[in-house]
Structures are given as structure tokens and as C-alpha cells.
Amino acid sequence: MISMWALLASSLLVATPSFNVNGDARLAGGYISHPSAVEPAGGGEGDKRFVEMRVRVDPEIHFSSSLTLHVSADIASNIHYGSTGFNSTGDSVNFYLRRAYIKWRTPVGLLEIGRMPNHWGLGVFVNSGDGYDTPFGIKRYGDTADRIVFATKPLGPESHLIVAIGYDKVSEERIINPQDDADDWLAVLFYKTRTVETGTYAVVRVQNSTRTKLFIPDFFARVHLPGEAVGLNTLRFLRFETEAVVIMGSTQAAPSVNDGLIKRDAFMVGAAGRFSAGVGNWEGTVEVGFASGDANPGGGKLTAFTFNPDYNVGILMFEETLAYLTAHTAERVLANTASSPEIKLFNTRGGVTNAIYVNPRVVWNALSGRLCIKGGLLYAYAPVEMVDPYTSLILSGGSATTFDGSPAGRNYGYEVDLAVRWNIAKGWWVEGEGGLFFPGDLFGENPEAVSGVNFYAVLEF
């Protein structure tokens, strides 16, 4: 052990540090219609019109080839102009130090210590919120953990098997009381080759203040095959990706009405899978997903799983309309009952919940990659009725009703999306996207169509 710390000291004292900065600056804006037919009982805030900006810098200091300090900060974060009633990321700040952590590559493995991004697999459960790889929309949140983790290759440096163990102090989370930190004990088993990636990220979560004890296994797999590998020279690639998560255990830190201090059992399931193929300038993807629901928001077993809000599915259905309605539900329950603050977790913030969905998409790249046109169709159906706690338990005396007070439904409806991106130069692009959403009875009785457009101007450096 002494020799390892001596090695660290030598890395700091002998080497001449090098410095580089990555990051991005972006401007986003849009308009989302909000017809009265999908307003929650009690009224809403009207259509969403907004412009927002953000500047993020990610400097790195390389003390040696084995020791690096990573920092991420928002110089201007979440600066909004206009209404933000659908899906706001929070208050604007002029400076926010998001992350700061050290990576030390030792002779026996990689050690990371500090406040760092938290991401696994497709990002269904934990999602760093970094990058611009979503089919539609942009990432606005990002999971962060105060973590110490050690990863190694137990079968030798040339092997494909990676094992990691670590400890997190989680301060930003969506399934526990956000006012108190939780302790995560994690273990990762990961296998990676040129064409195959697969593994499991397992977490034991404890939060004493809310009597929380959860076990969360998260399985991920990706297979990427070049066209020639399957004997089809006209095919650029075939790719299959999947992630499946189970949350099981017990907690009293969960959204409920009037019984927020009661310990409740939990069993929640979420999964997504994608099959993609590339031919010439075309790429096609069929994505399917599942998130368990909860038809008894007033109490009982916790069964509703919500995707990470940075795992974007479509433009309007989950990202805007459902996020808007669930946020208003949480606010109204708090204003009219003695519910605990955990009811705020009913707000999906744009994540998929209580849904079985299918989302085929197609991408066309033209003009040597400068022009990219994307299209998608989204359809979703709820495995259980979407029961709104406010209208059901407060306005209707326990009847199963949805957001507008009508009988609870299960059909989300369908959505058509289109986006056009122009790559001006390396790392510099603009994009416009639009969607038309035809809500089903899950949102109320005879809901009208919802439409929206967004634009993005991004400079990555």
C-alpha cells in the first residue's frame, strides 16, 4: 500500500501537468401547445413558450499518463426566457460546479474518487446527461454521485472481463427522499470485446432517515456487427441493445397520499430494447420499452418504475405532456393534503412510466454527413390504469380517475416526430424538430391533439 501512495506522489511531483478543456454552448427554444382538453382538473398554465441557454466547460488536468483531474462546471445554467410550465429543469444559476473527481490508473486497476457522472448501459436507470446522442430532444439533467470506485481486470490486463466495486453518497435521485443523502454500495461485472458489451450493475441502497433498503440489479447488453460479419456487403451494421432494471425492497420515501411515513414494499421493473441496421446513408431502429405502473397511488406496494428523464422517448408524449400533468398533480396534492414532500416524486420530469411502447425511427444522412433528417412514430399503452392521485383521492373520493377527472384509461395514443439537423462544421450544428401527438383516453375524455416545435443551436468544443 505504501508503494502505491509513493507512486501517486511521484506522479504529482515529477510530471509536468498538461491541460485541456472540452464543453459546449447551446441555445434552445420551442413552443408546445397545451389544449384545454388535456389540462388537469383545476386548470393549468397554458401553452409553453421558452428560450433557454447554457454554457458548460469540462476542463481536465493531466498530471501524468496515469493521473487526471476531471472538472465540470456550468458557467450559465438553465437560463430561461418565457414560460416553463411543462418540463423545467429548475432555477437558473450563473455558476455551478457539477463535478470534480480524480482518475488514477494504478498497476492493478483504475481508482476514481470524487463527485462524478453516474451512467450505466443505455441510461434507463442512471444517466450522466452528457452528450447529444438522443434521437429527439436534448438531455437536461444528469446523474451525479459522490463516489469512490475501483475497477480491475482480474484475468489480466489483456482480458475482456472488468470487475468494479464502489461506494456512493447519492445526493441527486428520483426514487428516494431528495432532501437526504442515501448510501449506495455497488458492484459491476462487465465484459467487453470489439463487437459485444454486456454486464450487470448492482446496487444496494440504504437511507436510514426513511428506512430505505433497496436492491437494484441493472442488466445491459449490446451487440454490434459490421455488415461483412454477417455476409451482407450492402449492410453497414447490425446492432442490438437492451437494458433491464428491477428495484426491490422497502422504503417509506415514496410518493403517496396521506401515508408518506408508512414503510412500503417495492417491486418496480423497467426495460428497453433497440434493434438497428444501417444501409448506405440510411439507418433504421425499432425500439420497444416497458415501465411498470401503479394503479393504487394512495398506498400499498410500490410498483411504478420511471425511466431516467434524460432517456428521451419521443418529443411530446412523455417529455412534455405527461411531465406537465404529473408535476401539477404533485403540487395540488401537497397544497390540499398533509402528504409528505415525497409526493413530488410523482413528477416524472419527462421519464417513461406505466407504459409499454414501440418507437420505430429512421435516419437519412446526406451531403457527406452535413444534413441529417430523422423521423419517428411512437405508440404507447399502459399496463395498468393511469390513476391520478389528486382527482381520484381528493376530488372523486377514491374513484379511479385520470388527470381531468374522467374514468382512468390506459391508451397513451400515438405521436409522429420529425427533425432536421444541419452540421455547419465539426462540433457546430443546428437542429429543428417538431411533433404531433394524438392523446388517448389515458389523458382524459376526448383529448385534443398536442403539437410542438423545438430548435437547438449547439457548439461543442
How would you characterize the overall build of this protein?
There is one protein chain. This protein is mainly beta and 461 residues long. The chain has a single domain (19-460), classed as Porin (Beta Barrel), CATH 2.40.160. It has helices at 2-14, 317-336, 389-395; strands at residues 18-32, 48-62, 67-82, 96-106, 109-117, 144-152, 161-170, 182-192, 196-207, 212-226, 235-251, 264-279, 282-291, 355-366, 371-381, 411-425, 428-439, 450-460. The protein has an 18-stranded antiparallel beta barrel. Strand 6 and strand 7 (161-170) form a beta hairpin. Helix 2 packs parallel to helix 3. The longest helix has 20 residues, at 317-336. The model is unreliable at 84-89 (pLDDT under 50).
Give the C-level CATH assignment: Mainly Beta
Fraction of residues in H or I helices: under 10%
Gap between N and C termini, in Å? Answer: 39 Å
Report the sheet with the most strands, covering strand number, pairing sense and barrel closure: 18 strands, antiparallel, barrel
Number of helices: 3
> What is the SS-derived class?
mainly beta
Residue share in β-strands: over 45%
Radius of gyration from the alpha-carbon trace, in angstroms? 23 Å
Q: Which H/E pattern describes the elements?
A: HEEEEEEEEEEEEEHEEHEEE
CATH architectural type: Beta Barrel
| CATH topological fold name | Porin
| Overall mean confidence score, pLDDT | 86
Oligomeric description of these chains = single chain
Number of strands: 18
Query: How would you describe the shape?
Result: globular
Give the domain tally.
Answer: 1
Low-confidence stretches: 84-89
